[in-house]
Input
Amino acid sequence: MRRLLYLIPVAVLGVLAVFFIRGLGRDPRIIPSVLINKPVPQMNLAPLPGRGDTGLATADLKGRVHLVDIYGSWCVSCLVEHPTLLDIQKTGRVPIEGIDWRDEPVKGAEWLKRHGDPYDRVGMDPAPGYTAVNFGVTGAPESFLVDKQGIIRLKYIGPITPEVWEKVLLPKIRELEK
Amino acid sequence: MRRLAFLAAALTLLAGPALAVDPSEMLKDPKLEARAEKIGGGLRCMVCQSESIEESNADLARDLRVIVRQRLQAGDSDQQVIDYLHSRYGDYVLLDPPFKAKTLVLWVGPFVLLLAAGAAGLGVLRRRAAAPPAPPLTPDEERRLDALLKDAGKS
Output
């Protein structure tokens, strides 16, 4: 019985080791969002010059499932997800709404002309980026799935790849459309 | 010379961490600015993670500094500003994690461990004190000890 007592430190070490080893594999940049199941923040963003839409407002995100994508022309990894966004737009599965974060209007418009424009609507969120902060954004690209009632249901940090679309976004969209 | 070195060391100790605040961001009202710096010092820069937004050069940290100042100017209390960012970024934005059920282990764990280790140590010491004294040496052991000591004396 006494001997079992000596095993307690080993057991404690074992438990700690499990947590620490699991922690090694975690990406510290991925922070769970507190905004899941909360309504989309109030916003009324101005349009990009020459794009022909009226910008992006909270009311535009109701009625059907939307994918909201936060990007910027300065953002290198946004180029990584760009072809995938264009492919999604081609399928017409879900409208993608863009928030052009911390950008200059002309640069943002030119960027879309050069690389293609996957967005339904685009709103500008110039520095200090109140809308991005309201969305709890920590870096671009970040994307949100918003349901028909305008409630945020999913946040994805990092570029959307075909795999992310198939395995993360599409199943959630199907679930939200039920 | 020595006094000079001492003075230099003392001055080094006095120096605080460098702030990344751009003078143009600072508020004209020194009282408001002091409040902003105090709030910002307790908010984590979500990009760099181990710096406060006052210390960081990241764009997001700069934005948050500006937002903190704008809200103070609009008449928010310190707590309202902190609550606003807390509602957007969660506990992670607070450099001091709040005390609640989820963070109980974090706050209480070290003290529990310290108490447990202290109790275990005390137990060992007590048991050692209570152990019976070693029996005296037998005549045979005495003789061997003498021989060993003599040997040691020779060399």
Observations:
- The domain at 32-177 of chain A is CATH 3.40.30.10 (Glutaredoxin).
